[in-house]
Each structure stands twice: as C-alpha cells, then as structure tokens.
Batch of 2 targets.
Target 1
Amino acid sequence: MDKLYFVVGSQDLYGDECLRQVAADAKVMADFFNEKLGAKVKVELLPTVVNSETCIADMRKVSCDDECIGVMTWMHTFSPAKMWIKGLQELRKPLLHLHTQANEKLPYDDIDMDFMNLNQAAHGDREYGFILARMRIAHQVVAGFYRHDDVVEKIGKFVDVARAINFSRHLKIAAFGNNMREVAVTDGDRVESQIRYGWECNYFALGDLVAVINAVTDAEVDAKMNEYTSKYTMKTTNIEAVREQAKYEVGLEKFLAKNGLGAFTDTFQDLHGLKQLPGIACQNLMGKGIGFGPEGDYKISALSAVLMKMAEGRAGATGFIEDYTYDLTPGQELELASHMLEVPVNFAATKPEIDVLPLGIGGKADPARLIFDGVEGDGVQVTLVDMGTHFRIICADIELVKQPKPMPKLPVARIMYRHKPNFQIGTAAWCYAGGAHHSVVSTALKREDIAMFAKLTGSEFIAIGDDTTEECLEKLARGE
C-alpha cells in the first residue's frame, strides 16, 4: 500500500521530557490519520527532527522508499530551519506542510511557559515556511486543527495528487506511429516531459503490435466478447467486426502488460496491418485506467492516465475527450465533445450500445464502437500544452449537461457541456491560453486538484471559470 511519511520537527533545547511529549503527540496524530485515511494511504511516523542528521536520514528514507508517495511535515516546537536544509535538498517526493498543533484550544487557566515552549507551531511553522520559500521548494500547505474534517479532507486530496505524481514518475507510453502530420498542439518535447513529469514516451512499431494481435486465439476473443456482452448492449448483427475489436483489445492488453506501459497513442494515418481503426478496444481500455491519445497525442495520453489515477476512489467520471462542434443558440451555447471513435466508456450515462457503422476517415473497414450519451454534472476540462520554454496546464470549469435532443445519425459516443462563466469568455480564454482540442474531462476532480498538481510539478497553471472576466482575457492576450 502507498505510504505517506510523517515527519515532526523539534530541537533539543527544551530537554528530553519535551522531546518525549513531541514523539507521543506525533504518534497520536499518525494513528488518527491512519484511522481517517487508511483506505487511501498508510501514514508512517519517522524519528523527530532535532538536528541536520535526523533530517537527512528521514528525507533519504522518504525519497528512496518506492512505496512512499510523499511526506507530511509539522513543527511541534520551534525547529530551527537551518537544520532542515540538507535534508530538504535530498527530498524527491511531494511535500505537504501541515500547519497545526497538538491541542485545539488553549488551556487559558493553566497555560505557562512550559506549555508555550512545547506547543509553538505558530513559531516553528513560520520558520519552516521561510526555509521552504527560501529554497523554492514546491509544496502544499494545509492549515487548521488536524482533527477537523476540512483538514483531513485537504490532506486526503494531497494524497490523491501525490499518488498521481508518483504514478506519473513511473509512467511509460507507447507511441504507435508518430504525431499526426502537420498538427502542432499535439506535439511536444518528449525529453522535457520526461524530465518534468517522468513520462517515458517511446516509439513502438505498429507491426510488432499487429503480430501480437494476430496471435490472439479464438478462445481469448470469446472471453473478451463475453465481457462485452455482459456490460454492453449488442445492437449490431456484424459480430465479426466486433470480434475484430475484441482481438485488438486482447492484443493491446498483452503488449502493454509485457512492456510495462500505462498509456498509448495511435493515429489513423498509420493503420498498416489492421482492418479497422481501434474503437471499442480503446474505449474499454480507457475504462480500465489506461491512458490514450489519438492522432499521436502523447501528452494527453499521459495526462489522461495520470488524472484517472488521481480520481481513483472518487465519485464521477474522468477521461480523454476532443472538442468538436457547438450549438450557438444565444444564451444557451453548448459544446458537443466526442471523437471519431475513442470516447471513454467512463462517461456513459446509460448502458452503452455496440454498433458497427461507417467511418469517413482512416480508409479501413467499418469499425465497431460503443455509442452512448454522456454523464451530467459540474466538472473540469484540463489540457497540457508545450509552450516551448515550459509546459502549461489549462483548467476550465464546465457543466456537463444532457443533450437537448437525440442525435440518431451521429455514430459516436458524446458528451455535452456548458462553458463557465459563459461561452464567450470561457472559449476565448481557452484560445488565448493556447488550449488544445484534446483534453481530459472529469466530474471527479476539481480545479484545486489540478492546481496542486501543477504547483508540485513546476508547471504553469491557468484557470478559467466563473471568476474569469473580460479583464482576464486582456491579460491572457498579452501573455500575462
């Protein structure tokens, strides 16, 4: 299970009795966090930092333990921050600064200097906050009494983001084919994204995947078809086309597992050896947490996998989507988002239907796909673009809505949403910011989750929502 190490700061100025109390209070807190957050993470207490040596040892343990996703720190007493410098220089995991104390209320009738010296997080945490700022260490601060529900909730959100960052640092992506010809926004610096996010994106020959697909047995296809029929409604009579997609999914699963891959891209310009463009295969794999990017979009493939990991355990849907077309009825503007085939099954509001219909791109046989209408509710739309000098994460607040009318002739799954604060400002801000047509939409995550991820990974962050104004557009237009 994932670990979150808990490191408490003090010093030896106040004697052994004080340090024993610090250790006892820290254990009580660690036990409480395990009770409240045990479904997400195991909180493990490390020795109290009283000098540079203990800090170095603690931070090395945090950084070198593969099961550890991050560290939570708190200064019980005044812990002089110079003793933290060398240890923090060793840290390679996300850091949460918990600004709290062991007691909720002051003992007004009994408080004395011994109490003051022991319980001085207001002093110690400010000293610690300075050194984090001075060293320019990206971190998250959570302030409040540690037993309060809002504090526990915020720590839980940090755990989700830290888990996603840890996943990101180990993520490997298969690029079957290259970036779609002439398209700019889906491309990017793969070396820099590995430095920044840990993504190992490498080319894999489509022929090698086709060889695995061609070796899939009828029994394996039968098992996959049983999975499909148990989850979806079979609308088509062209069962062979559906079996072809099942064969693709089995082959992809084998290939990804063998190579330790958590995400992949394809492109309809490189389908040599395949009879269809993968449809159900991609939709179903995304439903299992595998990242996907069409048209060679490795960034959105990785981002979708990372945000699906971040959203694990939360109610709602998360996955890749593409901006397509609008309903521009004044005051009721909506966006219809979809893709040629690969809309994640995560977004299905009702039981998806399997159908085989023509596809006017790719030059292959009619592919099988899942068709459904999307979920409703408040959500975020997130994309990541390469600005040449840095990566930019753009996050827009949206409202997913039910489609106003049926679309019986549209042969793909789709979702519809309303931009905030309105269509004019929301879409203009997206364009000014350089937002891509590929994004990750989530009704499970919130802007604050994406902002924390951007901060802890050193990414530029631009938010769009009800607080975006015409003045904000002017600043975005000027690159401010």
Note: The chain has a mean pLDDT of 94.
Target 2
Amino acid sequence: MRQPFKCPECNTKFLSGDSTKQITCPGCSYSGARDSFILLTKKQRVCASCNYKWDEYFPADSEIPSDFTCPKCKTSTESTVLNVEVATKTGYLELTNDGEGKWVGAKNVFELSTGVQTLGREANPPKADILLPTTDGYIGRCHIKIEVKETSNGRIKHLLADCNSVNGTYINGIKLNKGEVIVLTNNDEIKIGHTTFTFHC
C-alpha cells in the first residue's frame, strides 16, 4: 500500500510504497530513510458555509487542527467536519484480503449493529461478539471494538478502537495509537493481522 509522506527539505507531499526503505523526494530529489520523512494522514474537511469538500494531509502523529480557511469561498472558521461521510444507517465490514489464505469460513460480510461490538478470531471459548473464521494467528481473539451510535441529528457514527491487541490495528495503512478512537468512513480499509476488511456504510 502506498502511503503519503512530506519531504523534510522542501515540504513536497507525495505517495511512496510500503516496502520502500529508501525514499527519494520527487520535488527536490532529497533521498533518505523512511523515518527521515514525515508520515501523513489524509482527512476530509467540509466548509459549513458553502459545503465544499476537500482532502488535507496532516502529520500522522500530531493533533489535527479544527480551524481552517475554505479554499473555495475563503471563509475562515473554527467549525469543521473531519471524515464527513457519516452514515445514515449501520454499516458492515467486507473481507478484502484473506490473510494469505488463512480465511476458513464461507462468510465474508459482517453486519454491524447499534451499540458496542468486539471482533476477533474464533476461539473456544469465544472472546468477541463477532467471531472471524480465520486461522490468522496475528488476529487476537478480541482484537477491535466498534461502537455504533446515533448522533443528535439522526446520523450514525461508527467508532473504532483497538482492544490492546498484540499486533495492532491499521486504518488505511496507518497504525492506531493505544487508546485512539477513530470515526470510520465509507471505504476505510481496516487491517488486523494479515487480514484486511473494507468498511461500507
């Protein structure tokens, strides 16, 4: 998977492949180890004045500011929406990578329901609400938690967190920090162990 980076020399933003150990900036040709570049995360904003939507990139390990100036109508505001594609119905997870052939069940779509549900590898006794039929040992028996709740305006939010798993959880190629909770948006990619799901709402 390609990830967004920013060059520490000229601030050019670009995509680079996961496995690349040495990166060369396409803007200034600066070359260095992956760790010398700034890893970015993409978030979507929407202007409350004109409803214009656009993507912005932020350092993955920093707090995302709420204030912005709309690039279309130039309105400055401290009111923004990140990940604007909030659902109007409960979503579901679809298996998109079987963990290198570790998937052993026929079911590959998992409906989410209102409330809190945990997901993890099938075990005896079971440790999660939604059991995943896989032999992917890098998936914990209780790996992630998704809370589905209705907001005051009738929208549905899907909040995902890692359940202190050994191997962590990746959203769109970026690892969640301990205790971090993110709002899922349509087509988000969730990777646990060697197995990948796409969230739909």
Note: Residues 66 and 79 are 6 Å apart (CA to CA).
